[in-house]
Design goal:
The protein is α/β, with parallel strands linked by helices. The chain contains seven helices and ten strands. A six-stranded mixed beta sheet has the order 7-6-5-8-9-10, with helices on both faces. Strands 1-4 form a two-stranded antiparallel ribbon. The protein has a two-stranded antiparallel ribbon with strand order 2-3.
Length: 211
């Protein structure tokens, strides 16, 4: 999957789904300062890119989870990607909200599923892992057998790795921060001198850039 990871990194940079600004950091909703901003929803606007991601997901899931019976997307960013993967694999699809609706049937999980079904969860982005693991928890509480989670991209934060380990949930991603920044340097999106800044940010993002 190394070739696939580099290919996805190149696509994400080309279509500006990921932007790198080491000298002019972004501010996340959490208040963290960050030299990177990721918006994987943009991939859906580019047929070649979304097909590449769909096929990479499909290959990964077939290799790791040949007995998968159901694909679940995490709302909202991974609903479309999950549906594309499920269609390619000819499997049923459901999606998981961040919380149960306060009206109607009050569902947190939308779609038809059976208790005990073997589920692979599709996510678009892994940051701290909180919202992703919330979806895993909801599926387990509903009686689904969660085989693991796959995602387009991860920042590779230690907090996320620890969270998935504690939850006993396997996580595999198509691309990651390490591959992304190395690809960005080789392609000229950032300079070799920016690498140290980019690497240091990931080590402790909560305090990075705080004066």
């Amino acid at each position: 999957m190394e070739k696939s990871a580099k290919g996805i990194a190149e696509y994400l940079l080309q279509i500006k789904a990921i932007k790198l600004q080491p000298s002019n950091p972004f501010t996340w909703a959490s208040g963290w300062k960050s030299p990177i901003y990721c918006d994987n929803r943009k991939t859906l606007s580019f047929p070649e890119v979304r097909s590449y991601i769909r096929d990479s997901f499909t290959q990964l899931i077939k290799e790791l989870y040949p007995n998968a019976e159901l694909i679940a997307g995490v709302a909202t960013g991974a609903i479309s990607h999950g549906a594309l993967v499920a269609d390619k694999m000819e499997l049923p699809f459901i999606y998981v909200r961040s919380e149960a609706k306060e009206h109607g049937l009050g569902n947190q999980i939308e779609g038809y599923y059976l208790k005990g079904q073997k589920v692979v969860v599709v996510e678009d982005l892994i940051s701290t892992g909180g919202s992703s693991l919330n979806a895993v928890k909801a599926l387990r509480e509903a009686g689904c057998d969660v085989l693991g989670m796959t995602a387009i991209f991860t920042y590779e934060f230690r907090k996320a790795a620890d969270g998935f380990k504690s939850a006993g949930c396997r996580l595999d991603t198509l691309c990651n921060y390490s591959v992304l920044i190395e690809t960005a340097v080789k392609a000229g999106y950032v300079t070799e001198a920016d690498l140290e800044t980019l690497r240091n940010w990931r080590l402790d993002p909560s305090v990075w850039g705080v004066k």
